[in-house]
Amino acid sequence: MSENQYRVMLVDDEPLVLSALRRVLAAPIRYEGRDYPLQVETFDSPAAALERAGEGEPFDLVISDYRMPGMDGVAFLKAFMERQPDAARIILSGYADLDGLIGAINEARIFRFLSKPWHDFDLTAAAAQALAYRALLLQNRRLADAVRVARGHISPEDYERQRLEEESPGITKVNWGPDRSVLLEPDE
Fold first, then answer.
1. Domain ranges across the chain
2. CB 87 within 8 A of CB 75
3. Is the pTM here over 0.85, yes or no?
4. What is the pLDDT of residues 21-35, one digit of tens each?
5. CATH superfamily of 6-139
6. Higher pLDDT, 38 or 174
7. Nearest to 1 by CA among 85, 56, 60, 61
8. How far is the C-alpha of 61 from the C-alpha of 66, rounded, in Å?
């Protein structure tokens, strides 16, 4: 998260739905006495959203449609989770698909399932709750890691590597050449 804004990714194959989501989330959310200013990016293709997620700049929250051509929301969120495991995940659906919902919870570890059409308050409240929950999980992880360092269970270097990876996903990944040199761009 930047100093004052939470980064949110919206993914839906319907441009009107993306527009409506952006409209609702454009204004800062005020929930339970706290402000959640959002920086929103929209994608009408799961593939484009995954490409963006792989660029290293972390998102705090991703909201995805469940039914999209080419890749459903569960498959998208699972792939997104591999790239950015710390982002909170919400799925939207206009269909009552119990198996899909169970898959989303179990496989993509979603925070919340919202039905279409949504109520604006429910959407903004779910987004704020997901962001607050994410912040709490990250804080707990940092505290647990600090205890592990103090007890000698992990090294200070590993702790710092984890912190850097959380802050900028992919920053600690190094591509090595056959001669053990660092490759700046991997071979295609």
1. 6-139
2. no
3. no
4. 999 998 889 888 889
5. Response regulator (3.40.50.2300)
6. 38
7. 60
8. 16
CB 115 within 8 A of CB 93: yes
Are 99 and 71 spatial neighbours (Cβ–Cβ below 8 Å)?
Answer: no
pLDDT in tens, 129-157: 999 999 888 888 888 878 887 888 788 78
Closest CA to 88 of 59, 68, 118: 59
Token pair, residue 71, equals 């890749």
Instruction: Label residue 97 by pLDDT band (50, 70, 90).
Output: low
- Residue 157: strand, helix, or coil: helix
The Cα 65–Cα 139 span in angstroms is: 29
Which tokens in the block code for residue 125? 């409240």
Q: Alpha-carbon Rg of the chain, whole angstroms?
A: 18
